[in-house]
Amino acid sequence: MPTYLGFDASTQSLTATILDIDLDRARRDIVFEHTITFDEAFPGYRTANGVIRGEDGVTVTTPPAMWVAALDRMGAELAKSGVDLGTIAAISGSGQQHGSVYLTAAAADAFASLDPSRPLIDQLRHVFSRPVSPVWLDCSTGADCAAITGALGGDAAVAALTGSRAYERFTGAQIHKFAHAEPDAYARTDRIHLVSSFFASMLAGTHAPIDPGDGAGMNLMDLASRTWAPAALNAAAPDLARRLPPLADSWAVVGELAPYWQRRYGFGPAKVIAWSGDNPCSLIGLGLIDAGQLGISLGTSDTVFGPVARAVHDPRGAGHVFGSPTGGYMALTCFANGSLARERVRDMHGLDWHGFAARLAQTPPGNGGGMLAPWFVPEITPPVPHAGARWKDVDPSEAPRAVRAVVEGQAMGMRIHSRWIAPRVSTIRVTGGAAANAAILQVIADVFDAELVRIAPRNAASLGAALRAFHADRLAAGAPVPWRDVVAGFTDPDLRVTPDPAAAAVYRELLPKYETFATP
Ligand code: ADP
Ligand code: XUL
Predict the structure, then answer these.
(1) N or C: which end of the chain has fewer CB within 10 A?
(2) How far is the CA of 97 from the centre of ligand 2 (A)?
């Protein structure tokens, strides 16, 4: 019986999910799920929450060698999972978006000749032309964004071409910075991967392509044609075209799983399917297939996203349009101050999550007029280049009101900055670590005046990746399965939170005031 494997290489952890799907017998089970948390599993790389923050407060990187070690460790975990790895027909994955991996010309040979008797890291340690990978939390590239925007004719032109105006964390600006600051290392760089395509390359034993879901997070792809945009490449760095992997459909078969994985861990000759970004994969993992649906992911970052019929643009210029793994488009707004901001307020008061929820319950909706713009780290939406939380009529040392202020501020920010995706929705699908907290979900339901359905506690991104592997495998076999049938049965909610009409009325009045207050 075929099974399907999905990975999620997120900021803080690597997750693997195996699905057993038999459409004839209506069987659809998650038979294995395991997460490796980077800080705990690999203390030697000295990451905190999966990243290393520079002393300048704006540079944020991860050593890509840690990802290599983590994928190998996950192979070992899968080998002892009890699942017959020979049944896995196809494998895909999800990567944190925007992060980039810089490889020398030695990488192609190294990928192609992996020796199953030696650890992966021992064979790939020498292939990096840059020992660090800038990740999505990095905002050190303001000047690079300005240069790219100038070369391409302004914010609107960049957004019309690539789906987003130039963003600090997007890969084009990151490559611009690297090529100018370290020209020798750039010259030694033969291939620049995204996190997603780097992981796919390790599995397939060959340089893997980038899909339009993750490719749209680079400011380098022509969103309409799903090809590299020569003007954007030229604006980013010299001779970039030959350093980028090709773009391919999200359902492209990259190749067969490399012999390394088959011999070392007992996999069969599974198909490796192109990986995508975590948000495009979460779209599938949440069952968001039709335009007008909306999802919220409360992870390290908070994101609000949904499928859209056309490549719409955020008139405020704060949102993004990516390719959807179904072949259409998705729109997304990302908030850097997600879980990290909630944790900041929780830790300020020495609380656990239970205590955090209890404090929230002690205060009324609207917080008596108190507000917080929760910019504890530089914010993406709205753009706030330097950290600085802004409190109004709340004493931050007063736990209940501080807790309510952070949750309400985040929820109102999500509402304000997602109107362009779906102005009015009756149901929102929610996932991510903080979706475990029903008290937080209640505030979001009240602010949006919409029912929240939780697709949890599963990891929506790795589930979405496994579902994409299933879809691509059936398509390659000439027996395509409609997306609605692909996601059916895996994306049923385990919790429904309905809005409280009185609270919703309070927020309706508060939203315009908050919008004025939280404008940088
Ligand atoms: P990512 O995939 O971006 O690494 P996750 O979706 O796994 O992140 O979410 C991790 C975050 O979930 C943690 O940083 C933590 O703050 C948050 N979290 C976990 N449990 C709770 C809870 N009960 N209430 C609020 N937040 C929680
Ligand atoms: C999206 C974004 C984050 C990362 C990490 O644009 O920057 O959501 O994908 O999850």
Answers:
(1) N
(2) 5
Atom of ligand 1 nearest to the CA of 278: 2
The stretches of 105-181 forming alpha helices (DSSP H) are 106-112, 120-124, 142-152, 155-162, 171-181
Q: What is the pLDDT of residues 407-418, one digit of tens each?
A: 999 999 999 999
Ligand 2 mutation pick, 298, 303, 380, max ligand atoms within 8 A of CB: 303
How close is the Cα of 67 to the center of ligand 2, in Å?
Answer: 17
How do residues 444-482 score in pLDDT, each as one tens digit?
Answer: 999 999 999 998 556 899 999 999 999 999 999 999 999
* 13 in Cβ contact with 50 (< 8 Å): yes
Q: How far apart are CA 336 and CA 358, in angstroms?
A: 25
Sign (positive/negative) of CA torsion 210, 213, 219, 225? positive
d(CA 281, CA 274): 11
Structural contact between residues 275 and 464, judged by C-beta atoms closer than 8 angstroms: no
Q: For residue 287, how many other CB atoms are within 10 A of its CB?
A: 26
CA of 298 to the centre of ligand 1 (A): 7
Q: What's the predicted TM-score (pTM) here?
A: 0.92
Q: CA-CA distances (angstroms) from residue 348 to 106, 388, 403?
A: 48, 15, 10
Q: Give the ligand at the shortest distance from the Cα of 355.
A: 1
DSSP symbol at 96 = -
177-193 confidence digits (pLDDT tens): 999 999 999 999 999 99
Q: Report whether residue 219 contacts ligand 1, using a CB cutoff of 6 Å.
A: no
Cα distance between residue 180 and residue 144, in whole Å: 9
Cβ contact 471:281 at 8 Å: no
- Do 220 and 295 touch, CB atoms closer than 8 A? no
75 Cβ contact partners less than 8 Å away, ≥ 6 residues apart: 261, 264, 265
* Ligand 1 pocket check for 432: Cβ under 6 Å: yes
DSSP conformation letters of 320-347? EEEE-TTSSEEEEEEESSSHHHHHHHHH
Place of tokens 């039709």: 290
Share of the chain above pLDDT 90, in %: 90
pLDDT in tens, 346-382: 999 999 999 999 999 999 999 999 999 999 999 999 9
The answer to whether 448 touches 417, Cβ cutoff 8 Å, is no
Q: Which residues line ligand 2 (CB under 6 A)?
A: 11, 96-98, 136, 169, 217, 277-279, 299, 301, 303, 334
- Give rounded-to-5 percent helix, strand, coil for the chain: 40, 20, 40
**pLDDT at residue 456 in the model:** 58
Cα–Cα distance between 478 and 216 in angstroms, integer?
28
For residue 457, what pLDDT is reported? Answer: 58
What's the token pair of residue 68? 């290599």
